[in-house]
Amino acid sequence: MSCFSGGLDSTIAVHVLKSKGFDVLALHFVFRSIPCGYSHDKIKKKAEKLGVPVRIIEEGEEYLAMLKNPHSGLEKYKSLHRLQNSPLKQAARIMKEESAAFIATEKVVARGQCRSTKKL
After folding, report:
1. Regarding the domain delimited by 2-59+88-116, which CATH topology (the fold level of the hierarchy) does it fall under?
2. Phi, psi of 54 (to 5 degrees)
3. Which residues is 55 bridged to in the sheet?
4. Short-list 47, 57, 1, 6, CA closest to 24
5. Are 1 and 104 in contact (CB under 8 A)?
6. Which of 84, 60, 80 is nearest to 70 (CA)?
7. Does the pTM of the predicted model rise above 0.85?
8. What is the pLDDT along the chain (120 residues), one digit of tens a residue?
9. Which of 33, 47, 68, 97 sits most deeply, having the most CB atoms within 10 A of its CB?
């Protein structure tokens, strides 16, 4: 399983997993409170081009309500923290449902070092 935004990093992550022989389920999270990202159709086309099934998960209204009406600055911070961690929690639940061995993300560590390395 791989979290899949449809951008370059997540596309490469899915491609690498597939090239290593893994069956990949792409998970795409949609946050209605954050007006960015790709349309459902574009995500489906990108996943299809990679040859992987995709599951699109839309965040619920409770997260939008937390962001719009926090009781305090600290609560707004906690709401943002929950919003950021929610996809991984949902991915973990889906991982169990799908009997997946692991969850890949598109987070790249030391990206600049990878660019300067000729042989990995």
Report:
1. Rossmann fold (3.40.50)
2. -130, 145
3. 27
4. 1
5. yes
6. 80
7. no
8. 998 989 888 999 999 999 999 999 999 888 765 656 678 889 999 999 999 999 998 876 666 666 676 666 666 666 665 655 567 777 888 889 999 988 888 765 444 444 444 443
9. 47
